[in-house]
Every structure is written in C-alpha cells, then in structure tokens.
Amino acid sequence: MSLRRLCLPLIRPYRLSYRTFDEFEPYLVEVVDDSGRTGFADGHISPGSSAETREGGWAFMRERIPEMLGRDPAAAKAGVLKHFEDSKVATTALACAVEVLEGNPLLNCDKDTTLPLLTPYLIAAFSLSIALSMGELGATVMVYPPGWVTLPVGIFALSDRGAIFDAAALTMVLAFSTLIVLLGLARIPTKASVR
C-alpha cells in the first residue's frame, strides 16, 4: 500500500461559507495485491466542515495501513471500516481503494451510461415557486413596505376600492407574465447533449 498527501494549487480560490481554499490537499491511497492487481482511491478532508482534521486523517491512515497489510481484501476492508466513526474520510479512502482492487461490479461501466440531470427538477421547482409567488397575497400584505406594491397587492387594492375592471386587467397582466415565465422555463433543454 502507498499513501500520498497531495497539494494541488487552484487556478482561482474556491470559496465556501466556512473557508476559502487556494489549494486542495487530498490523500491518494494505492493498493497492490500479490497478483499485481491495483486499486486506488482518494479522500479530501475539508477543514471546518466536520471535526476531522487533515493531520488527524493522515495519522489515522498511517496507523490503519499496517493493520491491513497481509490480509485478504475483505478482511482488510472490514478491519478498517470498524474505525469509520474515528475518521470518516480517511476510512472511506482506504476502504474504497480495497473495493477498486476487488473489482467491485458497481465500478465497472461496460456501456455508455446516461445519468439524469437535475435541470428538469430545478425547472419544476422554480416553476412552482413562480406560480405560487405570483398568487401569494396573504404573506405579502403582512410584510410589504408602504409604497411598494406587487401585482397581487395591486389587484387586491383595486378590487377592494371597487375598480373591478382595472383589477381584472391587472389580473390578466399577472396571468400572462406567469405564463411567459413558465413557457420560457419549459424551453430550457432538459436532456444531455453531446458536444
């Protein structure tokens, strides 16, 4: 088994809510058995996202690797997985390297595979939120500041003052604007295209 700690500088900083990264420091684990089969995996402990630290993960792997040497893959993997709660990322990197060595069938792609895109689901969620927000009056009336009028509030105000035809005209504007947004969303391609 070999264990490497890499330092990969980024072209531009990668900003997260809890930290900005200028480089990634993943661990790379490589496993070779007696017959020459090879397995590899990597893991990246992101400081601040959990209680794990890079130094702790490195120490954990250096401690576990000698326990794995000379054992059959299933026993080595089971032995390291017993310590999963101690260092989840480090354990996963070690166990995944063994799974690749074992030739886990889930890792083989014998044919082209198409994965579903999130785009259709995001479009559906956005469409629903647009449709609901266009007609939401109760919450808007409670929180909108004076002088700031949304279409639903304007429709309510006009109908409350008895200007039914003006309210109806504004309702048509609201309906058509909602329809235009929803039709625009429907035109977004939702299938992967080969480039």
Q: What does this entry look like structurally?
A:
The chain is an alpha+beta fold. It has two domains: 2-107, Enolase-like, domain 1 (2-Layer Sandwich), CATH 3.30.390; 119-186, no CATH class. Helix content is 49%, strand content 15%. It contains seven helices and five strands. It has a three-stranded antiparallel β-sheet with strand order 1-4-5, with helices on one face. Strands 2-3 form a two-stranded antiparallel sheet. A hairpin with a 4-residue loop joins β2 (8-15) and β3. α2 packs antiparallel against α3 (88-102).
Describe the protein's topology.
Blueprint: E1 2-5, E2 8-15, E3 20-24, E4 27-32, E5 38-43, H1 54-68, H2 73-81, H3 88-102, H4 119-135, H5 138-143, H6 151-160, H7 164-186
Antiparallel strand pairs: 1-4, 2-3, 4-5
Helix pairs in contact: 1-3, 2-3, 4-7, 6-7
Notable characteristics:
195 residues, alpha+beta, 2 domains, 3-stranded antiparallel beta sheet, two-stranded antiparallel ribbon, 15% strand
CATH-assigned fold name of the largest domain: Enolase-like, domain 1
How many individual helices? 7
Termini gap = 39 Å
- Secondary-structure-derived class: alpha+beta
* Secondary-structure element pattern, one letter each: EEEEEHHHHHHH
Spatial strand order of the main sheet = 1-4-5
What are the segments in which pLDDT stays under 50 over at least 5 consecutive residues? Answer: none
Quickly name the level 1 CATH class of the largest domain.
Alpha Beta
- Beta-strand content bin: 5-15%
The name of the CATH architecture of the largest domain is: 2-Layer Sandwich
Form type? elongated
Instruction: Give the helix level as a range of percent.
Output: 40-55%
Q: Identify the CATH homologous superfamily of the largest domain.
A: Enolase-like, N-terminal domain
